[in-house]
Specification:
alpha/beta; 6-stranded parallel sheet; 253 residues
Amino acid sequence: MGVSDLAYGVYERRLAKRLDPAKLPRHVGAIVDGNRRWAKGAGTNYELGYKAGADKISEFAEWCDSLGVEIVTLWLLSTDNLQRSQSEVASILAAVEDLMDRLASEQRWRLAVIGNLDMLPVESAVRLKRAAESTNGLPGMRLNVCVGYGGRQELTDAMRSLLLEQAAKGRSLEEVATTLEVDDIAEHLYTKGQPDPDLLIRTSGEQRLSGFLLWQSVHSEFYFSDALWPALRHVDFLRAMRSYALRQRRFGQ
């Protein structure tokens, strides 16, 4: 082990030790960006980039669990991504499906698939739902995997679901409009029943949310990391948690 590795280890332990458990987020969301750029930089193909990204998800979940995070929401495949070439979409889905099967077999965390699964190939949707359902009832951390997800699509689906529900009750559009409350819409989101994310992390240096949890992130803290997702280190994660904790302390929360 070199001097730089020793210094890194000391710094990492110091960061972890200084985190106040009472100030850490309950729900962490992450936009796992940079898999293709990482693959290009490593001189390999994007299939291996997506596989490396999937492997990092398991590691990231471990980091969150070790700090007592209750819910982790990870954006793996957006509705925009579905417009990429058929071969690339197939590579992403293969990596996600293998990841879900592996996580389900471990029976450690409660898995949920979030997104419009009707936009996916039927075989993929069935496989993802089967993996998630096999973890129903498990205690501990909940891991939401966003596939075929887009913030605008979620809001569209939520309003469609709400209107169909109200129509089934015989209510007119005018009646729905005059009684509509914020909570009525929240009850039809993909994340209904779950607390909103406290902290949202995006990797790869991009400083935008791209529609991730549009409704739910209104009060979230944001942390943008320059690291590409497969190269995200534990110390990068700890810095994000420290940033969140410091803001909570600063504002007396």
